[in-house]
Write a structure and sequence with these properties.
This protein is mostly helical. It has 23 helices and 13 strands. The strands form six sheets. Strands 5-6-9 form a three-stranded antiparallel β-sheet. A two-stranded parallel ribbon has the order 1-2. The protein has a two-stranded antiparallel ribbon with strand order 3-4. Strand 3 and strand 4 form a beta hairpin. Helix 11 packs across helix 13, helix 14 packs across helix 16 and helix 18 crosses helix 19. The radius of gyration is 33 Å and the shape is elongated. The model has no long low-confidence stretch (mean pLDDT 96). Bound molecules: glutamic acid. Glutamic acid binds next to strand 10.
Length: 551
Amino acid sequence: MSENLKLADLLLPDIDKTPDYYEALYPERDLKEGAKVVRVAPSPTGYLHIGTLFTSLVNRITATSSDGIFFTRIEDTDKKREVEGGIENIIDGLNRFGINIDEGFVSGKEEKGVYGPYQQSRRAEIYQTYVKELIRQGLAYPCFCSAEELEETRNVQEKDNIRTGYHGKWAKCRNLSFDEIKEKVEAGLPFVIRLKSPGNEENKVVFDDMIKGKIEMPENDEDFVLLKSDGIPTYHFAHAIDDHLMHTTHVMRGDEWISSVPKHIQLFRLLGFKVPKFAHVSPIMKLDNGAKRKISKRKDPEAAVHFFIEEGFDALCVIEYLMTIAASDFEDFRRANPDKSYKEFKFNLKKMSVSGALFDENKLLDVSKNIVSRMSGKEVSEKILNWAKEFDNEFYSLLSKDTAYTEAIFSIDRDCAKPRKDIAKWKEAKDYVSYFFEELFTPDYTLPENINANDAVAFLNAYKDVYDENDDRQAWFDKIKELCPALGFASETKAYKADPASYKGHAGDLSTVLRIAITGRRNTPDLCSIMKVMGKDKCMERIDRAISSML
Ligand code: GLU
């Protein structure tokens, strides 16, 4: 038996399969020509990050645009960084945002698909099988260097201005003989398995990143770790094995991985795998005192997707906003197709920002207002109820007391040709509709400067006698106009403008007085509708209350 074969058995005695076994177990996918197989591969280290949601969206829409597959894979090889409930946080978060998952973890608990397990901690034997094969071929070897020894090497390299890492003459364990290795293994010394890199730093590796374009980097000559001493792979190795066996065609991930691509291409080639296409997504940036920087987990609340949920942004609004960041031509699509789902947009990776788009909250609010304005009153009221149930008990108990009333409130100025673009996020709704609820009503009865209290009171008293809740908008406003002459106001704005000295004001001013009396504010949706929803009794009560505070 050759030394390499003996070495492979010595280091991984329990591995009895060969790669052929897995190649047969995970055959090519049967998909139509051009279908892209993409994935998101989160580590369950906390909450769903906005960057992960963004990358997932880009992956999802790429799969959708090509009738391909979007799958999830949990990269949990670093047990120290894992948090309880990490998988649920991320996968359920994706579901909440409508990112449909075809395969892999489709919920926090449920896995689907025949290319699994989709969790790296359950794939140890697969990785070890491929490592064993590399050892057999003389392409991997054990390294017994301790953390202290590696640190020492690093210090020397740094002092002498040499590129740090386990390469060239610094790769101390590279040339250990079989007998030396055997002795150490039998003595129970822990070891990692390293790649015996055939790369040369002088050579270039070139690849065409689908977002960033052509990239050229030195070949990898570092004998980087494939398997850690506990038999668990590093990211690089697991990535190559998994994306090969799961038949990923396009690896789309955060651009912090670009510098590792030479290692990855090398691994794919040495293992005899087809190299996938790469697309490195730029992070979402933020302006901080005029300087652009990555959204940071530590500094920015909006790094956590949960922030948007708590603020009451509808999932679709966030996604629609992320689409405007993802594709420079998305807004043209939206203008031309106001009613189509974003899923119908033909996504092209070439239209992605190379340097990282800025997160712009005002833009998000704007996009949201547009989308919410197109929702029906029923939809809005249901969504607000759901949100309040989770985040605002007081509001929830008011809204749920009479859901027909709630729906009527949120139907005002909606379901019409020009709906009011008012609410951007559910958190704003409470203040926006507070005057409908006695418990929340905090009126400001300050009158416009040109109206004195006596005139306001005289108008309100007269109005009480004529209000009819069956009047339509026109009749409603006509009633106000009819009261104008007797009070010294112009019925028509035009007449007032032509001769302002002859009038105290115009009908519009009196409707403002009525608005203040009913709602305690100057700016609201259509007042006639508000009064109908409130009902005559409440309106009369409100007018009385206003009169007594104005006197
Ligand atoms: N687990 C890696 C990360 O969270 C995934 C990178 C990839 O998509 O390949 O960054």
